[in-house]
Amino acid sequence: IVEPKENIKKPGNKKVVQFVYFFGSENYAWIQEENIYRYPEYKSKYEGSSRIPKGFKEALEAIENEHQALLASGKLEDLPSVDDEVTLMHPKSPSPDRDASLPASAKKVAKKMKEPKEGKEPQNRKSKLKSPVRKGVGTKRPSSSGDAGTPSSTKKFFMSKNSKPADQEGSTRGDESMRESFHFTHMMGSADISVSTKLEEYDEVESEEKISSKTVIPTPLRIGFLGLGIMGQGMVMNLLRSGHEVTVWNRTATKCREFVKAGALKGNNPADVVQSCDITFTCVADSTAVRDIMFGNMGVLDGISKGKCYVEMSTVDEETVQDVADAIMARGGAFLEAPVCGSRVPALEGQLLILCSGDRKLFDDCYSCFEAMGKKSFYLGNEVGTATRMKLIHNMILGNMVASLGEGMALAEKVGIDLEDFSEVLSLGSLSCRTINHKCQAILNGRFDPHFPLQHQQKDLRLVLGLGDSVEQPLHLAAAANELFKKARRMGFGEGDVAAVFKAANEFNPGEDAGSVSRDVSLTK
Q: What is the distance, to the nearest Å, from the Cα of residue 393 to the centroid of all Cα atoms in its chain?
């Protein structure tokens, strides 16, 4: 338990919370006291288990190393009890009888907290120093500090309750201020031990897109992931960062190298991944790819057996989802469909919306994975196909909106309106949202790096039109938008971003620029 910096606000509720530092992941969150346990009393729960993820084991080793060092130095002796410390940190009305019952060490602490310096009002102690990056928490111990005059925060050896961490009440790792280093000290007896840490550095793309990290307690289940495309890459990286044990496979094997370096295991084929893992996720481009991975040689179906779990995160048609579900359940496996709402950036940031239907127990077992990959997961029922229908309707609205934006900007250009001015008006008005603002900038810059490939958007429109036909619901706007996206694909923009629909709306000569833009797309993928 550490003291937060001045700019970290405490949750506005009546429950008692503490600001907790997490070994291993090296991040921070407000945690309710009822979910905090003393480390020495509960550490045996995790000893000797072969199913604990590697990252979680390293965190336990780091705690144990520090705890043993403090035991050896005698700095854990004569500490007040947990109840006494809580009373000291959250005092009510002072009572002479209560004070007399405290141990000697607690009285000393209470005296220090009650007596302000001469001529000054008492202040909350805040830690303001910066310190260098601390890496390898499992192998390096904190160094001693002789700076007795530095105000110290309190840190105790507790473990967060291994239940849903949705209570995190303001996890702060993604906060910009938390990218500065923390400096905190233990208050163990009469000596202070200085510990410094900084949030781990990310590569250029991740820094620019401000990846939001969360406090996630990883499941001990072994996780498999098939498909390392635009979406899968970010999702797998967030699973690894949160401490999950992940085995990956991709049709292009070279894409696995980066993730193996980051701590993932590599499967030889889909069947191999399914056999070695408890839960296997798949996220690929379309129905054809899903069927190949499922029913092909050494595919998922060859590895499925009773008790194995399979989660389909690809956006495909209802028929494909139902065929996959039937095949999995016929072999005794559990099935969950979980298509995601979001593009490349939310996938990198762990900010996807995850729509689920199917096996409820499997949904619960996937909780920590969904926490790592998304900002919210929805369980829509046990009927397979429900999540797919919602995802297709969601993407229909997205496609209509982007097509309308493309036509609007094309018209603005034709009537002599400056597109930068038009973009600024949109960003400041009632239409302002992340999607509109980002696509406006892509159109202004003339660069269509594939955050959400145009060909995938057109595929989703085609699927939703089929869904509308099945229930005799006319979709006039979606049909018109689909034709515009089809035109953009014919012009060579299929692998570019969905914002390239502007080129089709602008009705320029297809032979003039399509080739050059296509080359730009291939160079920037």
A: 24
One-character DSSP codes across 285-342: SSHHHHHHHHHSTT-HHHH--TT-EEEE-S---HHHHHHHHHHHHHTT-EEEE--EE-
User: Which one is the CATH code of 205-384: 3.30.465.10, 3.90.76.10, 3.40.50.720, 3.90.226.10?
Assistant: 3.40.50.720
368: tokens are 């920590």
Where along the chain do its domains lie? Answer: 17-197, 205-384, 390-524
Which SS3 state, helix, strand or coil, does residue 343 take? Answer: coil
- DSSP code at position 254: G
Work out the mean pLDDT of the chain and round it to a whole number: 76
Tokens for 209, please give them.
């897109």
User: How wide is the angle at C-alpha 282 spanned by C-alphas 485 and 333, nearest 5°?
Assistant: 135
Residue-wise over 380-402: b if at least 16 C-beta within 10 A, else e? beeebbbbbbbbbbbbbebbbbb
Q: Is 391 a catalytic residue?
A: yes
- pLDDT at 14 (0 to 100): 63
The beta strand positions in 17-157, using DSSP E, are 17-22, 27-32, 36-38
pTM of the model: 0.59
Report the pLDDT value the prediction gives residue 99, as an integer from 0 to 100.
45
Q: Are strands 36-38 and 309-312 parallel, antiparallel or unpaired?
A: unpaired
Q: Find the mean pLDDT for residues 12-26.
A: 75
Q: Which residues contact 299 (CB under 8 A, 6 or more apart)?
A: 269, 270, 271, 292, 293
State how far the alpha carbon of 67 is from the alpha carbons of 78, 105, 162, in Å.
15, 19, 20
- Active-site entry in 75, 391, 459, 503: 391
Q: Identify the DSSP state of 253.
A: G
pLDDT number for residue 257 = 94
Which helix (H) or strand (E) segment is 353 a member of?
Answer: strand 352-358
Superfamily of domain 390-524: N-(1-d-carboxylethyl)-l-norvaline Dehydrogenase; domain 2 (1.10.1040.10)
The 10 Å CB-count burial string (b at 16+, else e) for 34-60 is ebbbebeeebeeeeeeeebbebbbbbb
